[in-house]
Amino acid sequence: MPLLTISELKKAAREHSPQEAVIHAQVERITRKDASNGKPFQEAIFRDATESMTLRAWADSAAFESCSEAKPGEFVMIEGQFSHSAAFGLDAKNWEMSPLSDDSVDLLLEGSADRIALLDRSYNVITEAVASLCDPRLKALCNRFLSQHGARFRRAAAARGNHHARRGGLLEHTSRMMESALALCTVYPELHRDLLIAGVLFHDTGKLWETCPPERGFGIESEPRGELLGHLSIGIELVNTLWRDLPKDEWEVLAPASEEVRLHLLHLVASHHGQLEFGSPVLPKTPEAALLHFVDNIDARMEMFLAAYATAGASHKGQHEWVRPLGVAPVTPLAPFLEETPDLLL
Fold first, then answer.
1. 3 state DSSP class of 276
2. What does residue 249 show for φ and ψ, rounded to 5 degrees?
3. Which of 133, 156, 302, 319 gives 170 a disulfide partner, CB atoms 3.0 to 4.6 angstroms apart?
4. How many CA atoms lie within 13 A of 47 on its CB side?
C-alpha cells in the first residue's frame, strides 16, 4: 500500500474510492462516544504536516482497542481502505493503528523533500528581504527576531483553521506576503519599503505563542500568553521588547526619528486586520498599513481557494463545496490558454 500524507489521501479517496493506503500521523485527540443506537465507537483525530483527518473505530473493530490505549501526542501508523462520500467526507473500513518507529517519526516531522524545499525557499525570501533593508534600526530589529525566534517562526501555523493551518504555515504565509509587498513597492515607489518589510515580518509574530506546534508535534497549540492576550497584543509587545534591547548609541542622528519609526511599525502590527470588528484596535492610517492589510487578506484568500480546489470535489458545473470564510462556493477557475489548440478531429 502507498504511504500518503493526509492531504494526498483525501484527494486520492475522492478520485479513486476506495483507496488502500498507509498514513503516518500524530494522534491529536481520541474521544469515546455512543451512536444513536447505543453502539460505542472511538472518534480519533489525526494530524500530519499537511492537515488533519477524523476516523471512527467501532466496538467490533481492531482499531477500537488501539484507540482505547493511544494517547494524544503519540505518533502512529494507520493502514486501511479509505473512501469518500459527500455526506461524511473521508471514511475508513477495517483500518488498523500501530505505534510509529522513532526513525519514522523523525522523517515525518522533517517532512517530504518538497516540503523541506518549500520552507527553505520561504525562509530565504524573508532573510533576503531583511538583508536588503537600508534602515539600520529596522534591520537590527528584524535580525534579532530571526536570531532569537527563528526556529519557532519556522514551525508556527498561521491559524487554527481557514488558511495555512499547519506546521510551517506562518512561514509560507509571511513569505508570500513579502513577495507581494515587494512587487507592489515597484508599482508604488512612494511606499516606505523598509517599514513595509518589517511590518510583513512582524505582523503575525504573536502567533508564535498563539498557534505554534511543539518541537515534536503537529498539533496547533496555544500557550496561556496566546489565549489571554491574542497575537496582535503579543506582536506589539514583542516589537517593543526587541526594540528596547537594541543598542541605540548612534540612533540620535538618524532620520526619521527612532520613536517615529517604532510607532509606525507598531501601527502596522496593530491595524493589519483592517477592521475594528476583526480585532484591530485601530484602522490602517498609512499607505503601508493599508497595503499590509490587503496583501495579508489576498494571501489568506488565495490559500482558501487553492485548498478548496484541492480538498473538495466539484459538481458537473464546476462548483465546489461552500467555504465559510470566503462566503462563496468556489467555482473551478478558467484553464490556461493553449497557444496550440488540440486537434479534436483526430
1. helix
2. -60, -40
3. 156
4. 22
Which domain range does residue 251 map to?
A: 112-304
Looking at the structure, tell me whether residues 80 and 193 fall in a common domain. no
Say if CB 269 and CB 235 are below 8 A apart. yes
Grid cell at residue 279 = 480585532
Q: What is the pLDDT of residue 342?
A: 61
Chain segment 281-315, per-residue pLDDT in tens: 999 999 999 999 999 999 999 999 998 887 656 56
The answer to whether residues 63 and 137 belong to one domain is no
Same domain, 146 and 182: yes
**pTM for the whole structure:** 0.85
Specify the 3-state DSSP secondary structure of 313: coil
What's the confidence (pLDDT) of residue 309? Answer: 84
* DSSP per-residue codes, 172-230: HHHHHHHHHHHHHHHH-TTS-HHHHHHHHHHTTGGGGTTS---TT-------HHHHHHH
Domains of the chain: total:
2
Q: What integer pLDDT is reported at residue 292 of this predicted model?
A: 98
Model confidence over 306-329: pLDDT tens digits? 988 876 565 667 888 888 888 898
Percent of the chain past pLDDT 70, that is, above it, reads 96
Confidence at residue 81, expressed as pLDDT on a 0 to 100 scale: 92
**Do 45 and 147 reside in the same domain of the chain?**
no
pLDDT at 50: 84
Same domain, 192 and 118: yes
- CA-CA distances (angstroms) from residue 141 to 120, 202, 266, 288? 22, 10, 13, 18
Specify if 326 maps to a domain. no
pLDDT at res. 316: 62
Q: Is residue 49 part of a domain?
A: yes
Q: Is residue 270 part of a domain?
A: yes
Domain identity same for 176 and 274? yes
Question: Rounded to a whole number, what is the distance in angstroms from the first to the last CA of the chain?
Answer: 38
Residue 309 in any domain: the answer is no
C-alpha cell recorded at residue 6: 493526509
Beta strands in the chain (DSSP E): 3-4, 19-34, 40-47, 52-58, 75-85, 89-99
